[in-house]
Structures are given as structure tokens and as C-alpha cells.
Amino acid sequence: MILIKNAQIVNSIHDKSEKTDILIVDDKIEKIGKNIEENPEKMIIIDASGKYVMPSFTDIHCHLREPGFEYKEDIKSGSRSAAAGGFTTICCMPNTNPPVDNRAMVAYIKYRAREVSPIEVLPVGAITKGLLGEELAEIGFMKDEGAIAISDDGKCVMNANLMRNALLYSKDFSIPVISHCEDTNLSEGGQINLGYVSTITGLRGIPREAESTIVARDILLAKETKAHIHITHVSTKESVELIKMAKEWGVNVTADTCPHYISLTEEEVLGFNTNAKVNPPLRTREDVEALIEGLKEGVIDCISTDHAPHHKDEKNVEFNLAASGTIGFETAFSVLLTYLVEKNRFDIGKIVELLNHNPRKIIGLSPNVIEEGKKANLVIVDLKKRWEVKEENIVSKSKNSAFLGKILTSYVETVIHNGKILKKDGVLNC
Q: Has 63 been labeled as part of a binding site?
């Protein structure tokens, strides 16, 4: 049994409690109320005074690298990193080696997760065989095996007719298509955002239209097929405007952006900082403000991390040779609190919606809620704690964080998944 004392519960913008106690028995919340009787011999007692208790987080876009790239990350290490950041459900992308493009690979991911992961890992299947963009993968078989969405993330499905067919099949099997929107004819050879910083550094730029043209194409295809398209890692102002227009049309479109896109700009790459090399690239201050406004208005539905671990040797090279991507599990919540709540006056309950309610709705899951009789999936966070992101404190195998050296406000102190303590007072126990 676990007893959390003096908890201030935040389930959503509209559901906040005064200080109360939470009693957890086995994997469920048995009782919520004031002055629940303590029994130190039979229960673990956690004092949440001055802190917030909220449902644990869900990430619908991450990379665990297994199988094939375990030197960067694997299901066990990635899951531990996610748990450290408060995520108890994560959806891993299929760009592994071999790719997750058939039912056997989906089954492998699920089996490995049951074997080594302390949290829930849900596979995303590929749209096309081998991620080659030439032939549809076994969408129905993968769905039957447990894939919760399909995506060729890391690559764009450039063939519009193939993408249309993928949407038609996804509608039949009731799963979303997660679209990596990048016109490779425009982005080929690019390193960073095309603009002022690319000019002064001499690095080849990627025009913003490389993203927005495919966003427009996929919205139109979704409009015609009436399928669910999910636009992932949105980075430009134009993409936000297109998604807003699509929602006004009644298109079945959802979208996410990532913590680094609502907080950092292209200027992070000055000095040739390869940890700030991501795809799509970091954009301008105007784009950051548009993304924040999109989150505020509900145009962008949720936050995903796009956790993309790379070995140090893949980042410690010339900028044009460096791999794209940043890790994100362990800093996501703190970045959102720092840049959305502190600096842009978002309600703390809005963060719960962005990290719990909305991502789970997109993939067809019920939200985690702190109520009697529900599964005990929750986090305890200290909103006042300030901390510096340092390599030595990162749980992930890879240390390529775009936030290294930055001071963030708020910290995930305790994480409970299905009644099991994975992290307590900042110490990971899984």
C-alpha cells in the first residue's frame, strides 16, 4: 500500500482539488480523502506537501532504436528514461533495423517490452515496406498484432497516391496515420532552417515549405478519404495555419509539436552545436510564438518528445555529418512548465491535457485520471525546483539533449505506474 499525503490533484484545467490524501492498494487508487489513517508498518508514506499530483504522461512519438541500433538506446534503457520523465505510456516509431513493417516485428516489440520495460510500450507500424515509400506494409496484420498507428517517421511518403491508399486502409482499420511532413526535393542536403543563421554559418538551409507543402497535401488527402491524419513534430507558422484551416473544414486531423520547437530557435546552432541539429530544424522566434498560440487555441492537440537518441560519436563530428535528433523524455515536462506555464501563463491543467488526455485520445486510449477505482498511474511534481540539465544525470544511453546546460523550472520527483513506484524523491527505482 502507498499513501500520498497532502496531495493537490490536477486532472485537467477544470478538475483541481484542495489538499487531500490518496491511498493506493495494489494497482488501483482505493480512496481519496482528507486525513486517511496512516499505518507505517503496512504502507509506504509519501508527503506531497507543496507539490502537485497529476496523471502520468503519454508520448505518442519516440524512438527506442531496438532492434538494430541498441548502441544508441534500447527498449529497457529508453523506457527507464521515459519513466524518469514521468511517461508511463510511450509509442515507439518503426524506423529500426529491420523496420517494424510486419506483424512479427510488432509482436517482437511487444514481447521485449513485456520482458524488460517498467512501463507500457506501444508499437507504431510502418506505412510502407522497409520504409522505402514504394509498397504498403501489412497494415491490417500489424493492427491485429497491436500496432496503434502507422508511420514512416524519419521519412516522408512522397508518393501521394500511396499516401492516399494508406489513409484509406487506416480508415478501414481505425488507426491514425502519423505523417512526417517533409518534401525531400526541397530539404535534400539541408542542415538547418533556411534563413539568417544558415546564411551567416554557411550551412545549407531547409526551407519551411519543405514541411508546409506536405502538410497541405496530407490535409487534402485526409479531407477526401475522411481518414485520421496526425501531423507530427509541427515546426512552422504556416503548418499551424493550415491545420487550423483544416479543422475549420471538419477534416479529421490532429497534430503535435515537441518541447524543443516551443522553446528554442535556429540560433541554438550558432557555434555549430550539433545537439541542436534536429529534423525538422529549429525555426524562428515567430514560429515558436505561432506554435505556442496553436497550443493555446487547441489547433495543436498535444506534445510529443520525438525522443531521438544518438551515440556521442554521431554528434561529435562536423555539423553536416552529424545525426539529427535530440533526446526528450527527461526534460519534456520541465520545458513545458518553464516555457508555457512560467513564461506564457498556461494553466497547469493544460499541461495535463497536452501530455495525457489528448495524446491518449489520438491513439484511442482512455485518459489516465486520478480517481477512486482507477489505475494508479500518476506523478508528483515540484513546480518550484530549478535544475540544470547535465550529462551525468541523464538516464538515457545517449546524452544528446538540446537542453544541456540550460536551467529549467519544475521537476518530476515521483512516478507511480499501476501502483508500482518507479521513481521516488528523484531516485529511479526501475
A: yes
Strands 427-428 and 177-179: unpaired
Q: Which residues span the domain enclosing 377? A: 2-53+372-385+408-428
- Quick: pLDDT tens for 322-347: 999 999 999 999 999 999 999 999 99
Phi, psi of 68 (to 5 degrees): 105, -30
- What's the CATH number where 215 sits? 3.20.20.140
- Cα 33 to Cα 71, 367, 415, distances in angstroms: 47, 22, 20
Question: What digits encode the pLDDT tens for the residues 93-146?
Answer: 999 999 999 999 999 999 999 999 999 999 999 999 999 999 999 999 999 999
Q: Is 180 annotated as a binding residue?
A: yes
Between strands 87-92 and 120-123, the pairing is parallel
Residue 61 among known ligand-binding residues: yes
Q: Are 387 and 408 in contact (CB under 8 A)?
A: yes
Residues 157 and 48 in one domain: no
Check the annotation: does 230 bind a ligand. no
Give domain status of residue 393, yes or no.
Answer: no
Task: Give a three-class secondary structure readout of 47-65.
Answer: ECCCCEEEECEEEEEECCC
- Co-location of 104 and 232 in the same domain: yes
* Residues assigned a catalytic role: 306
pTM of the full structure: 0.97
Q: What is the number of structural domains in the chain?
A: 2
281 and 377 inside one domain: no
Residue 204 known to bind ligand: no
CA distance 396 to 408: 18
Q: Are residue 99 and residue 228 in the same domain, yes or no?
A: yes
- 3-class DSSP state of 77: helix
Q: Is 311 annotated as a binding residue?
A: no
Phi, psi angle pair for 76, to nearest 5°: -70, -50
Give yes or no for a contact between 298 and 238, defined as CB atoms under 8 angstroms apart: no
